[in-house]
Every structure is written in C-alpha cells, then in structure tokens.
C-alpha cells in the first residue's frame, strides 16, 4: 500500500495484510491492516511499526516520503507483535539510538520481546512531547488492548492515534470512513466483541476520562482498518454502547446437532422468538465461526445454547464456544439451554452450569428431548421462544 496523506505533513505509512484469515483465533475474511503514522515536523516522528513480515514495506513507505534515517522519534503505542514485530528492522534502519517513546509497561514488555537495548523514554498519562510546531499528548490506556497500551494525541491537528482502540480487521485501499462503499460498523463491532469486550469496564472509564479532557478530536487513527475522518463521534458513540453492553431486542440461538433433532428445536425456539418481534438468528456452530457468533452476542439480550449429549457431555463445538464466550465475559444477558439426547442427557445441565458461571440470568430449567422431537416437543420449544421473546420485549426499551 502506498503512503496515504491523512493531513498536511502526516501520513499513514502502514501496510495491508490482505490474506490473513485468522488473527489469533479470530476469523478475518477481509484481512487486516497494520497502520503506522509518520509526522513531518521539526522532529520527524514515526508512530508504531507493523508485523515483522511487513517491516520492509513499512520502510519503503517511509522512504517514499523521507529518508528513514531522518526520523528523530519513534513511538510505540502497544507491544503486541502485529505492531512491534517490525521494530527491530525499523530501528536498525532508522538508527538504534533514536529515542523510543512508550508507556512504562511498554518498555518492560518490549524488553521481554526483543533483546535490543533501545533508547527508551517511558511516558505516562499527561506527559507531552513537542515536535516543533506540534505537540503530542500521551494517555495510558491499560488493557486496550494490553497492559502496555497507550493513545497518542496530536493536539494541533486533533488526531488521536488510538492503537488497537476503534480498529477493525479490514484491509482496504480506501483509508477513510467517508471513502468506503461498505458499512464498516459490523467490522468494528466484530473487532470490539472479540478483542475488547473483556475490558468493557475499563473502556467505559476511559471514554468518560477522554470525554472530560475535551480534546477536540477531529480524526481517530487506529492501527487496524480505516481512519475515522468524517465522523469520529460515530465510533465513540458505538464504543459507549458496547462498553456498557446495551442490548437490543435481539436473541441468538447457538447450537450444534448430530441428527438434526437439536437443530429442529433451535428452529422452533427461533420461530417463537420471531413471533414476538425479537430479532433472532439460529447459528449452527459448524456454519459460523465463533468470532462471528460473539459479534452477535455483543448486543443480544439473550443467548440460547443448544447441544446434543455427546459421549455423556457437550458436543465439542459447543464446549469450544462456551469456553470462548466465558473468556470474553459478556454481561447483562438472559440465558437458556436446550438439546436432544439419546440415553443420558447431561448436555443441557452442563450448558446451564456454564451460563450460570458467566452470571447470565437463566430463564428456564432447560429444555431436553429424548431422540427426535415430535410436534408436541417442537410446540413446547416454540412456546419457550415466545415466553423468552415476551421477556425481552418487556425488559429492553424499543429504540
Ligand atoms: Fe493490534 Fe493488540 O494488537
């Protein structure tokens, strides 16, 4: 990707990773980008690096604008290797002695990744750095996405370099929200649900803190995906909703099935939910990637999980999904379980135990049916769907 000027004297010199399909377990069918930013001022500054494999492309992008050796300052907003893997090569090219600004935890974590003894300058919230005509402000943003993460704000231009925050795994030659022909919000939602959901409480606090600072943000430049130029308020408002885990009148029915019996129960539950006006989608665990299901969980009021009993336990894909969801700690959910079984029938109780551990509010004792559900059993599933739908309508305000 050629460098893109995002404001006078400021460039995105990052790269697209068109073909990455899996980002530590998260499906990325649209690839991703590793954005990095170059600021031309009296002190020429590089913000963030890229994944190791793309370091040469980053250096070439910088060289198309300025001799890399003329860079005076490097800033590392986050240690994860999609942003730091290219640092050894980049620092070697720029000059190993150039000052490298990062959080205190960033210094510690970079030292745990790389043997080089770089010229670290640790900074904390409230610290500033003059580049000449412009000033950078640092804000530590622990757990957005790692303990070392920080934002860097360029005051005069109103640009927030937000590292993982507000990103999307979406590779594109168009770099701005106003230049896209697709709706980027589902990609931003998927990113939040899979990368940041666990840290929602911290993100809510961070948003409140940033709001109080009255920074006058005119543009948000994350390290993944497109830049929020036209309407940074749109992604800030979405993060406010997602971090508070505001639910819609929506349910998802997640299941796997062996001989279509649990599937028939899932479909009947969905029919009942649909009749009440609740948005619902059945999600078969061998049709949908867990990261797409979690994206739907984020703003659902209810998560209904179905599993056949398999070797006296859960079907493996259901166990996988429950483990994944438990780690991300979604809040404010109603939960229920269902499933067909042959002779022992443990799966429904095992699901309920997991949902209870996740502090979901359980709305039933679980629906179990031996072997193939007949019309009465399916009617009971539909009736359950209707009662759950009524509960959602009653508890979630209409938008
Ligand atoms: Fe894009 Fe947490 O790294």
What brief labels describe this structure?
23% strand; alpha/beta; six-stranded parallel β-sheet; seven-stranded mixed β-sheet; 22 strands; Rossmann fold; Metallo-beta-lactamase, Chain A; 399 residues; binds MU-OXO-diiron
Please explain how this structure is put together.
The protein is an alpha/beta fold and 399 residues long. The chain has 2 domains: 4-243, Ribonuclease Z/Hydroxyacylglutathione hydrolase-like (Metallo-beta-lactamase, Chain A), CATH 3.60.15.10; 253-391, Rossmann fold. Helices cover 35% and strands 23% of the residues. It contains 12 helices and 22 strands. The strands form 5 sheets. Strands 1-2-7-8-9-10-11 form a 7-stranded mixed beta sheet. It is elongated and about 75 Å long. 49% of the residues are buried. The model has no long low-confidence stretch (mean pLDDT 97). MU-OXO-diiron binds next to helix 2. Residues 78, 80, 82-83, 145-146, 164, 223-224 line the site of MU-OXO-diiron.
CATH topology of the largest domain: Metallo-beta-lactamase, Chain A
Radius of gyration: 24 Å
Bound molecules: MU-OXO-diiron
Number of strands: 22
- Write down the domain tally: 2
Helix count, per DSSP?
12
**Architecture (CATH level 2) name of the largest domain:** 4-Layer Sandwich
Spatial order of strands in the largest sheet: 1-2-7-8-9-10-11
Q: Which word captures the global form?
A: elongated
* CATH superfamily heading of the largest domain: Ribonuclease Z/Hydroxyacylglutathione hydrolase-like
Instruction: Estimate percent helicity.
Output: 25-40%
| Broad structural category | alpha/beta
What is the averaged pLDDT score? 97
Q: Which spans have pLDDT < 50 for at least 5 consecutive residues?
A: none
CATH class of the largest domain: Alpha Beta
Q: Percent of residues in beta strands?
A: 15-25%
Q: What distance lies between the first and last C-alpha atoms, to the nearest angstrom? A: 41 Å
Largest sheet: 7 strands, mixed
